[in-house]
Amino acid sequence: MTEHRLILPTDLKDCQLTYLHQLAKGMTVYNQGEKAQEFYYVQQGLIGLYHMLDNGKESLARLYKQGDYFGFRTLFGLGDSRYHCNAKVLIEAEIIRIKPENIDRFFTDNLQMSKILLQTIANELGDAEQRLAKSAYLHTLDRVIDSLYFLNTNFPYYNWTYREIAEYAGCETETAIRIAKALKQKGLLTDLLSAHKGK
Q: Across residues 143-163, what is the average pLDDT?
């Protein structure tokens, strides 16, 4: 995710802004399959993007922190404009909902923002391709370690559960717990493994 402090929602033209305050942990910002009519900016808090699998399980796809925009890829994409993931609040959040009045005019009148969104999409695609490649050649142990490192290094202020670590690593919660316990017993990654993590 890229820092977007140079262009704030209040700098944008041809759109309506709605301020959403004190969104509690666990609240849904939008649901997978819901028609996209706006995108969002995180003023504070942490938002998780979860893809619901056919078997009903969720996979943690991406995270958005203060200063990030999200939900725009679906809105500005071609074809079906339905969100491909659920967006949920992980840490109490304040976000701004941005609803363009006209998509073409929005891009024309906000050229710098269009560039930032394009760069963000490129970065997210690169991250997704890296994770896909890792899931293909890394063993589950390596994926869990990689996820532990990434999540705790980039979002140290959030107490990651084994379930969330497993969702990000693409494995079962029990597997993440077993690997974490084995790492603790060997005295490895103790700085990344907190004393207690709920499921």
A: 89
